[in-house]
């Protein structure tokens, strides 16, 4: 592989005009497609195989034309102090508002609170339900404006009016903090390279790669049903890995220049060595993201595949466009350690560049030497520290967001609170029971039996009469729980109804299915929990095999996987502490604490594993490179840090800055993922890879690089260390003996 990438790097350097033209053309093509595409909304949410989804699909078949997937709005009215909603003046205002709400081509139906008995027992709160023919993201701005205008007219008449439901949902935005993250990345690159040109290359190539990826996602959003969150997450991950991959190749290029090589040769060798690490690091990220398909949640699968595509583009750009731009930069990108204005007139090169000089060892060398001297103490301190950070994860509560998780400043949240106040906490999470009596001899008796059975269950406040379809073979029953949607009592009620349905099936041949947003959330959480172990086995197993090929070792990949588990558990603990317990919530812009997003753990497992393997590959390949060329195991650890610690540190800080930039998003899921990934990179890069990994390698010694001979012969030689390049150049890299491991 190293030889092929070496040739690719030299070719890209020589044919830089063609390479640059190809990538710019791809960017323009993707941009044109995105410009002509409709704005992305929320992708359709389906959970194949769950009871809630089966019930929803049945409703689509048996109740055609009811717009089951259409937007809804609950316009909630509250009377002024001392008055009731049944007072003549307030009643007239509400009825006038209902009349206004009924206007509009996209409105399917509006319920009158007084006819639908949607007035609280104390008479202070009432609500009107508005159903639309299209989804919330497809709703015209005119329809949304009409909804808000109607509410405002009622407010002017003296009522308190708030609007809940998904009719007013907006496309999420990331905020200005994303730009701050990129600015921090730029500062880190300038400090690392000491050159504006060298620092600008990773930023430019990452932005081009993300531009192509996100524009392609936008262009295909309508055809593939991709939501707006998909492009935001692809941008987040694509920016982070795009900058990092280019950073490693530019850094290796400068090191090759410092060895005295010509620029084209240095570009080829940089791509042949660091590029090999980029390919395998990118593969681990792609495996982790595409592996999300195991969960069988279409929305999650699309998010993973889209982000994986952006990562693949980042890898290709790092291997081709980075050497092309290095050709354009010429002498403006100086050799590592170069202080003079011309190449070859180096001053003050230190041993971090592989050159002899009077400068003292760099920080990476000093830190690695300390770890090698005190490996057990460093290992214990790192493990205990991450274990302490992971403690809050034991209190992890999972759920999907509803209006109750919105900030109190929003009308959706205020409507949610008014409904809870007037009708009870369970009113915001009604359960829809679908009774399929097509195979029953007496459907009406089956409908009645289901309603009577549900009334006898614990935590049930209201059971509406069955509402059959035109054919009379299917009916819906609405059940109002006594507890809020996310409570364990409501989850127990859902399971209780489903358990009771088995007995009803035996007596009446009618199938009982429970759906609705609350039941869907419960089924999603269960599906994600069930998929977590198979997903871990698949992703970690494939990446473990990949790392065995890269490092030609059993214990090094095993150590990498265990270190990842520590990182992800500690990161989940931090997420629970901030988003569930409320620690530092004000600093993070978390206005409302609550359960952690159901898909957060499995998404973090996928993304963090891929990113963790990035640093493992970049750092440990340098150690293996030193070891196979004759250095002792402990010295190889120090050499790996001398060459790679500064660059890995810069890469980690950049990735943290990019992820942290998305904490400013208006979308709670994006905010949570941005924070979780930033913390995970902090733990993995600076605790696991910089402390635990060298400590374990120092303790294992030569055993770390042990591989059974039969497996060594069976595995392909991918030559990540670039040994083929040294052989082709006649061994001009020195007379170090190659050690077989």
Write the layout of secondary structure elements.
Layout: H1 2-14, H2 16-35, H3 51-62, E1 72-78, H4 88-102, E2 107-110, E3 125-132, H5 141-156, E4 160-165, H6 177-193, H7 196-224, H8 228-258, H9 263-290, H10 298-329, H11 363-373, H12 375-390, E5 398-399, H13 411-423, E6 431-436, H14 443-455, E7 460-463, E8 467-468, E9 474-481, H15 488-508, E10 511-515, H16 517-551, H17 555-580, H18 585-588, E11 596-597, H19 600-628, H20 633-660, H21 668-700, H22 709-714, H23 723-728
Parallel strand pairs: 5-11
Antiparallel strand pairs: 1-3, 1-4, 2-3, 6-9, 6-10, 7-9, 8-9
Helix pairs in contact: 1-2, 1-9, 1-10, 2-7, 2-10, 4-5, 6-7, 6-20, 7-8, 7-10, 8-9, 8-10, 8-20, 9-10, 9-16, 9-19, 11-20, 12-17, 12-21, 14-15, 16-17, 16-19, 17-19, 17-21, 19-20, 19-21, 20-21
Structural write-up:
The protein is α+β, with helices and mostly antiparallel strands and 741 residues long. The protein has helices at residues 2-14, 16-35, 51-62, 88-102, 141-156, 177-193, 196-224, 228-258, 263-290, 298-329, 363-373, 375-390, 411-423, 443-455, 488-508, 517-551, 555-580, 585-588, 600-628, 633-660, 668-700, 709-714, 723-728, and strands at residues 72-78, 107-110, 125-132, 160-165, 398-399, 431-436, 460-463, 467-468, 474-481, 511-515, 596-597. Strands 6, 7, 8, 9 and 10 form a five-stranded antiparallel beta sheet that branches. A four-stranded antiparallel beta sheet has the order 2-3-1-4, sandwiched between helices.
């Amino acid at each position: 592989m190293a030889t092929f990438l070496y040739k690719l790097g030299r070719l890209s350097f020589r044919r830089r005009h063609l390479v640059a033209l190809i990538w710019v053309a791809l960017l323009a093509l993707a941009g044109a497609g995105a410009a002509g595409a409709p704005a992305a909304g929320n992708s359709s949410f389906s959970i194949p195989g769950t009871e809630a989804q089966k019930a929803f699909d049945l409703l689509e078949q048996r109740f055609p034309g009811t717009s089951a997937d259409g937007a809804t709005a609950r316009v909630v009215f509250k009377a002024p102090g001392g008055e009731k909603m049944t007072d003549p003046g307030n009643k007239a205002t509400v009825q006038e508002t209902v009349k206004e709400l009924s206007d509009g081509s996209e409105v399917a139906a509006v319920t009158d609170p007084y006819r639908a008995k949607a007035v609280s027992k104390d008479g202070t709160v009432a609500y009107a339900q508005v159903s639309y023919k299209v989804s919330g993201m497809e709703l015209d701005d005119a329809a949304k404006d009409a909804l808000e205008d109607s509410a405002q007219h009622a407010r002017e008449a003296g009522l308190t009016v708030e609007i809940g439901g998904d009719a007013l949902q907006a496309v999420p935005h990331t905020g200005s903090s994303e730009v701050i993250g990129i600015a921090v990345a730029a500062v880190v690159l300038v400090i690392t390279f000491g050159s504006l040109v060298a620092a600008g290359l990773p930023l430019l190539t990452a932005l081009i790669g993300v531009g192509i990826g996100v524009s392609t996602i936008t262009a295909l959003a309508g055809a593939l049903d991709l939501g707006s969150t998909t492009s935001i997450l692809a941008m987040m991950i694509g920016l982070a890995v795009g900058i990092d991959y280019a950073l490693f190749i530019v850094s290796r290029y400068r090191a090759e220049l410092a060895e005295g090589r010509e620029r084209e040769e240095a570009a080829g060798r940089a791509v042949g060595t660091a590029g090999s690490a980029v390919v395998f690091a990118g593969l681990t990220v792609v495996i982790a993201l595409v592996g999300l398909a195991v969960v069988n949640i279409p929305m999650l699968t699309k998010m993973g595949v889209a982000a994986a595509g952006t990562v693949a583009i980042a890898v290709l750009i790092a291997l081709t466009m980075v050497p092309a731009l290095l050709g354009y930069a010429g002498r403006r990108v100086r050799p590592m350690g170069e202080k003079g204005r011309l190449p070859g007139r180096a001053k003050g090169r230190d041993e971090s560049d592989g050159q002899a000089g009077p400068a003292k060892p760099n920080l990476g060398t000093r830190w690695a030497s300390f770890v090698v001297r005190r490996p057990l103490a460093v290992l214990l301190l790192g493990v205990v520290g991450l274990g302490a950070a992971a403690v809050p994860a034991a209190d992890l509560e999972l759920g999907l967001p509803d209006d109750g998780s919105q900030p109190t400043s929003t009308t959706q949240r205020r409507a949610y609170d008014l409904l809870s106040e007037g009708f009870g906490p369970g009113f915001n999470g009604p359960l829809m029971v679908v009774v399929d009596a097509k195979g029953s001899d007496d459907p009406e008796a089956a409908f009645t039996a289901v309603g009577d059975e549900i009334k006898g269950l614990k935590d049930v406040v209201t059971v509406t009469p069955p509402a059959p379809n035109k054919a009379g073979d299917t009916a819906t029953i609405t059940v109002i729980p006594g507890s809020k949607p996310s409570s364990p009592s409501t989850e127990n009620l859902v399971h209780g109804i489903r358990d009771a349905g088995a007995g009803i099936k035996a007596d009446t041949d009618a199938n009982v299915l429970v759906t609705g947003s609350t039941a869907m959330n419960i089924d999603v959480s269960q599906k994600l929990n069930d998929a977590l172990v198979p997903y871990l086995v698949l992703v970690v197993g494939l990446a473990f095999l990949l790392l065995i090929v890269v490092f030609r070792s059993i214990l090094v990949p095993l150590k990498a996987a265990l270190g990842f588990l520590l990182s992800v558990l500690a990161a989940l603990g931090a997420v629970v502490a901030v988003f569930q317990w409320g620690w530092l919530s004000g600093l993070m812009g978390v206005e409302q604490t609550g359960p952690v997003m159901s898909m957060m753990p499995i998404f973090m497992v996928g993304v963090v594993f891929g990113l963790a393997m990035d640093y493992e590959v970049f750092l440990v390949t340098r150690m293996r490179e030193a070891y196979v060329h004759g250095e002792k195991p402990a010295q190889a650890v120090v050499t790996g840090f001398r060459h790679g610690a500064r660059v890995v540190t810069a890469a980690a800080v950049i990735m943290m800055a990019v992820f942290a930039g998305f904490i400013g998003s208006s979308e709670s899921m994006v905010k949570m993922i941005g924070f979780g990934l930033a913390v995970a990179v902090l733990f993995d890069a600076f605790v696991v890879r910089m402390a635990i990994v060298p400590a374990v390698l120092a303790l294992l010694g030569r055993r770390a690089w042990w591989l059974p001979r039969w497996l060594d012969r069976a595995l392909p030689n991918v030559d990540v260390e670039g040994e083929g390049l040294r052989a082709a150049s006649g061994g001009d890299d020195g007379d170090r003996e190659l050690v077989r491991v």
